[in-house]
Amino acid sequence: MNHFPPLKWRSDCRCYQVRITKGAFRSMVKLAIQHIPNEIGTSLVGSYSDDGHRAVIHGIAPLSPDSSGSPTSFIRGILGLRDFFDRLLARFRRKRHYVGEWHSHPNGPPAASPKDDRDQKAIAHDEKTDCFECILVIVGDDLSASPSLGVYIYSRTRGKIPLNSM
């Protein structure tokens, strides 16, 4: 894949910033292409700055076998994720962990739907996830030729915050 959309994103208030590594982007697009025409996604692996307002997405979790997608929806499963993140936390000494979710919108805009908003707000407010600034990345448009990204923060205290490419 030669086409990379912008991989740095920032909120209008300049408080939040997300950077996506090229490897993470490639992994998302590869999985999305494999599942066309259906939506697909997994959890995001990353790290936060000490204040929690800057994040780097280093990779993605493996696809849970109980996940399911259709051309217009995606439900991420949970099988194996706890073990994956436990091993990840140990390997990286708690420096890499769960930071949110991503999924694809094949041949559709990379914009969050009302269902996406509900799901992400629920994750941000779920104290078990320990992700009060939850990231959502949507990979959309023509996934094979020129995929585009939508990036959002769902803050436990500030709600939905769309980010703009830098």
How are the elements arranged and paired?
Layout: E1 8-11, E2 17-20, H1 22-34, E3 41-48, E4 54-60, E5 68-70, E6 73-75, H2 81-91, E7 97-106, H3 114-125, E8 133-142, E9 146-155, E10 159-165
Parallel strand pairs: 2-4, 7-8
Antiparallel strand pairs: 1-2, 1-10, 3-4, 3-7, 5-6, 8-9, 9-10
Structure, briefly:
By secondary structure, the protein is α+β, with helices and mostly antiparallel strands.
Description:
With 166 residues, the protein is an alpha+beta fold. It has an eight-stranded mixed beta barrel. The protein has a two-stranded antiparallel ribbon with strand order 5-6. 22% of the residues lie in helices and 40% in strands. The chain has one domain: Cytidine Deaminase, domain 2 (3-Layer(aba) Sandwich), CATH 3.40.140.10.
Characteristic key phrases:
166 residues, Cytidine Deaminase, domain 2, eight-stranded mixed barrel, two-stranded antiparallel ribbon
Instruction: Please count the helical segments.
Output: 3
- Class inferred from helices and paired strands: alpha+beta
Query: In the CATH hierarchy, what is the superfamily?
Result: Cytidine Deaminase, domain 2
How many structurally independent domains?
1
Question: What summary fits the major beta sheet?
Answer: 8 strands, mixed, barrel
Mean of the pLDDT scores? 92
Span from first to last CA? 21 Å
Series of secondary-structure elements, N-terminal to C-terminal: EEHEEEEHEHEEE
Query: Which CATH class?
Result: Alpha Beta
- Looking across the biggest beta sheet, what order are the strands in? 1-2-4-3-7-8-9-10
Number of strands: 10
By CATH, the topology is Cytidine Deaminase, domain 2
**What best-fitting shape do the alpha-carbon axes yield?**
globular
Rounded to the nearest angstrom, the radius of gyration is 15 Å
What proportion strand?
A: 35-45%
Give the proportion of residues in helices.
10-25%
Low-confidence stretches: none
Q: From the coordinates shown, what is the CATH architecture?
A: 3-Layer(aba) Sandwich
